[in-house]
Specification:
This protein has helices spanning 45-52, 78-91, 104-115, 137-156, 159-170, 191-198, 224-233, 248-251, 253-267; strands at 5-11, 14-21, 28-32, 57-61, 98-102, 122-126, 211-216, 237-242. The chain is an alpha/beta fold.
Amino acid sequence: MTAIQNEMKTIAGLDTHYRTAGSKSNPTLIFLNGWATKLDGPKGSDRVICELAKHFYVICPEAPGLMRSQPPPEVWGFPQYAEHLHAFLQSLEIEKPIMMGHSFGGGAMLMYAYLYPGNVSQLVLVNAAIKGKRIQFFYKTASVLQFVSKRILFPFASLSIARRVLYRVNGVPTEIVTRENLGSYAVMPSVPPAYIASVESVKYPKVTTPTLLVWGTEDSVTPLHWAERALGELPNAKLVTLPGVHGVLYEDPAKVVDIFIEHLNKAN
């Protein structure tokens, strides 16, 4: 397996972890994973990073509040995550990388391309959290779980239970969470409703970055018709589908990356 380097920077006061892999002589690609993705394991983000590293120099920041990065000080939506990502890229002196995101990460990348159109060379959105009807059962369920977590879990639950929930929902390794820093995660249950609402502010016709939409056709979380709607509004987009559910990127990273590489070769 490709060697992955673990690094950390303090960005706007937040300890932000990130991983790198691949040769620096290759094009730079920023990958932002989905909300509940884990560092490793059968469906971990490390498998995606290793697959991408065959073709790119990969930088995978761990968004504030996810995995090992420090939670934000208040509820953030996609604009705040995009601003933090921009500050992160500036700290590394990276300009116009390829940007790829899955689910939450895709929504944040789309917001980034909207706010900073001159700093993205290519946008890849995989089963991304973009505009769509907000009556999906998943989001209704998520809102209830967020309420329960905020009002019951953090104030009253044992540390061991809180650790298990944060690992499952936010991908936070259990050893990261202590009794001293547990309270800082109390903001996280309110973040998904905030980022879901904030994506509506993106004006699709103004996102002129070349965009590839890659979608699993059986996705019930961010359904295919969301991508089809985006395809009709984004001025420079292409949609490619493949059999699979919301997590198809982690189940078969090689297939998704091959689709992306094929698209890049045709574009060039």
